[in-house]
Write a structure and sequence with these properties.
Strand order of the largest sheet: 3-13-8-9-7-5-6
Distance between the termini: 56 Å
Number of helices: 20
Low-confidence stretches: 1-42
Length: 669
Amino acid sequence: MNKTKNIFKTFVALLLAGVAALSVACNHTGGSSRPSDDGGVFDPDAKITVKDTYDGTHDFTAPDTDMPFVTNGSCDYTIVIPEVRGAQVTLAKNELVQFFAEATGITLPVVTDSKFSDNGKGYISIGKTSLLAASDVTVDYDKLTEDGVRIVTEGKNIYLVGGGDYGTLYAVYDFLEIYFDFDVYYKDCYEIDKNVKNLKLKDFNVTDIPDLEFRSNGYYQLIKDEWMYRFRIPRTYGTITFPIYEVVGDPSSSARTVHNALNWLPKSQFYTQHPDWYNNGGTELCYTAHGDKDEYEAMMQACVDKAVATLTLYNKEDYPYLRILNFTQQDNFDGCACETCSANVSKYGTNSATLILFMNDLKTRIDAAMAKMDEKYRRDDLTLTFFAYLYTETAPDAKFAELHLKDGVSVFLATSATFDHQSSIYADSNTEGRENLKNWAKLSNEILLWTYSTKFSHYMYPVDTYNFYGADAYTFFAANNVKLMYNQSQVTQKGTCTAWHNLKAYLDSKLQWDGTRDAAYYTEKYINAMFGEAAPVMKEIYTAMRLQAGIVKTKYNGVSLLSNVTDLENPSFWPYFTLKQWLALYDEAYAALETYRLSDPAAYSLYKSHIDAEYLSPAYMTLVLYEDMLSADEAAEIKDRFREAVEVTGITNVCETGSNQIDSFVNGL
């Protein structure tokens, strides 16, 4: 079979053909061949050699049969979809039709199962069709979880289905990857084989289950539309979390999904009559009601009332994906130091123990209240979550039976204090974090994990978190009961990210699904796909950036990148001549694209926009830190290119909060 492998991208609304071939290809025959031997980039600080392992399910068994599938540019197969289906299954059909046509030139017909008449020529069933139900194909939906994939060949027919509708969509992406090496790198950049004229039918027996059951989108202002589905992160934790309104049952009042303890029990409503529900400063709840049993009972009842009102606002038919009631502390260190809370700390050794006792009790009462509600409001999968964060981040000892989380209660572990997100998970600086997560795993069958991969006050500056977010970390998480992961990054950024955060998003999408994947391999794929002829220079820039960001990390001696101490806008971290060298390399990268300018103007614009996104970072740093060292001509050139890159990419933010940030900076140039 003669296949021509091309890189295809979308630019604005256009699909571009005829772009140069990649040197990297995946060969999917007879099972998964994704590189998975490398456990991560070597970290000289890592002292531990015995690492946690996770036996995930990523079985890509799909040998060729003797039967034809595509012959001389023709295919007799029909796509069959359920008559009644969700939006994700409809998207699955659309994606299969589009990309199959791009790879083969063949537009497959589509019909619903109620109208399908089997002509014996073969069909591709998507989702829970009547054809699947009548087949001998086995699907363990519980094992697959919502996002897991099953692809099976029976006779001539192929069945693509997931544990839920999202899994069905991801089954299409696995099918496309196996047949056509399909991969998505960015909102306007994907890879697929082209001009495929002949294919054998594969004997699919694929089961692909994500290592982390729910992967929450950490760039949700940026990664949207088809991009978020193709990255398999269409939702953030907020998508499955009930909003907690300040006024019981009133959706017009203010709502919060996190840091919402004072939305559960607003001071404006309760403080005057129930001051013991709050700490002495009124900045956080007291989860023992200062030891007053009557006040504790009243406090519990108010929380149950809030839970019942919330569930009543959102019936499960109209809001099927809501399952988490988040009851999370405020964003401060202000716990309660009353006599009863202090006694709990003395007894159990941690501030989190009081939270666990409260949440276990509250979930028992919510369950009892739910049993009396109309069936349409009950949630069998309801999970009550609480933060382990700041002063409550440390887990108590599992020897205390009463501190084991009851079914339906989960911890949301926010690792701002215990993890060094710039070093390997097995580095000495992460010993405390590893042990703490393991201790929580002894208490909770489901951990929701909140991690960080940017400096919120410095979006334009590189932060090297690549050692932490390697294969070892995701395998460690999966092995220790992490089911949901939210890697908070540049959540307010729009248009594009800079400082190689777009690469971080791509690697997240790969490694959160399968932690055994080789980050170095996928980094190579990404750079080749995103930058075309400029890829060699961009690899040099990426390597230089990581080296310098690693040097910056050492300046702080392991202090958390979230700390107020870590001010990245420091000239000593980014020497003038280092930035000057980077900008010279960007000149080389832009020059390397000249081969496209006349032969393929659309490809030229596309690759250039990707370089523009990364150029923004060193240009910004140079203008902020060293404008006084630039000649008038040098400053004018950098400013002009910066303005152009801003316009092309649509980037909006230099930090997490505030408005008109890039506009204000550009206007001040």
